Amino acid sequence: MPELPEVETVKRSLSGKLIGKEIRDLEIYFSGNIRRPDPLLMGEMIRGKKFLGIDRRGKYLIFTLSEDLALVVHLRMTGQLLYVDAAFPKDKHTHLVFSLSDGMELRYADLRKFGTFDLIPLSELPQLKGLAQLGVEPLSGDFTVQWLDQMLQNKNRSIKNVLLDQTIIAGIGNIYADEILYEGGIHPETIACNLTEDQVRQLWQATVKLLNLGIEHRGTSIRNYVDGDGRQGGFQELLKVYGRRGEPCVRCGSPIGKTKVQGRGTYYCPNCQPKV
DNA sequence: CTTCGATCCTGAGAGC
DNA sequence: TGCTCTCAGGATCGAA
Ligand SMILES: [Zn+2]
Q: Is the C-beta atom of A95 closer than 7 angstroms to strand C?
C-alpha cells in the first residue's frame, strides 16, 4: 500500500508530465472517492484548470491548480494515479479520468475504493481535515534525534503505534514501520517512553535510512502499487521482515514472527528485536 | 491518555 | 470445481 516512499515516487513520476497541462474534461465512473465538492460539480469546477505543481505531505498528494485551486489525493491502500495515452485500455477499477490538453489522460483506479479526492480553494488547504493534523515530515530537517527523543518521552503506548500515528510523524505505514523497527533492533510492542537513548538514535537512523531506501527503489509493490507510469517498485525484494513469517531472519536465522499491534499484522525477529 | 472495535471495500487464499 | 470464511489495511469515529 502506498506509504511515503510510494507516494513520493508517484509524485516524481507525474510531475514532469502534468505540470503545465490543462484539464479538458473529467469522466466519473464511480464517485465514492470524491469528498469535495459534490461529485456532480467537480467536472465543472476543474475543467480548464492547469496543473501548476505537485507536492507530497505525508501520504497525501497535493496538486496545485490554476485559479487558486488545490486537488488533494490520498491513495489509501489501492489507489493508483496513471498518466496514460487515451487509447490505453482501462483498468477494471478505473473510477476517474481526467482528459488532458496533450491528448493523454490522468486516470484514477482504486480496487478497494478507499482513496479520497478533495478539490478545494487553495486558501482552505491549511484547514483540510487529515492534512492539517499531519505531524513532522520524517525526511525534513524538522525530524531530528532530539525531536524524536523529546516526543517519545510522554508516549505511553507501543512504539509501532507511535510510528503509525500520522499526527506525530507523517508518512510511515505498516510495511515501513515493521522494517524500521527491525533495522533498529526494537520490538514493535516496546512502550515508546521506555526506549533507551541508544534505541532512539537507532530508531531515528533506521527511519531516515529505510524511507530513503524505499524512495531509491521506487517504492514497494507488495500488492498492486505502481507509479504514475504504471511501473512497479523494487523495494519489496529488500523487505527483511514484512510478509516473511516463518522465514529465517537474514541477520540471525531465527524464524520471523508475526503478531498483531494496533490491529495490524506485525512482523519481527524475536531474537534481533527482543521484548523487554 | 489509551486501546479497542467497527466502518469503508474487494480479491486472494485457505479449508471443506 | 465451487462454495464460504478469513484476512489485508489507512483513517476516522465512538465507546470503554
Ligand atoms: Zn534476527
A: no
pLDDT tens for A80-103 read 999 999 999 999 999 999 999 999
How far does residue A26's CA lie from ligand 1's centre (Å)?
A: 51
Which candidate in A37, A209, A264, A270 is catalytic? A264
Annotation: CATH topology of A4-127: N-terminal domain of MutM-like DNA repair proteins (3.20.190)
Q: How far is CA A230 from CA A34, A234, A262, in A?
A: 22, 13, 32
pLDDT digits (tens, 9 = 90+) for A50-71: 999 999 999 999 999 999 999 9
Q: Domain A145-268 has what CATH class?
A: mainly alpha
- ipTM for the predicted complex comes to 0.86
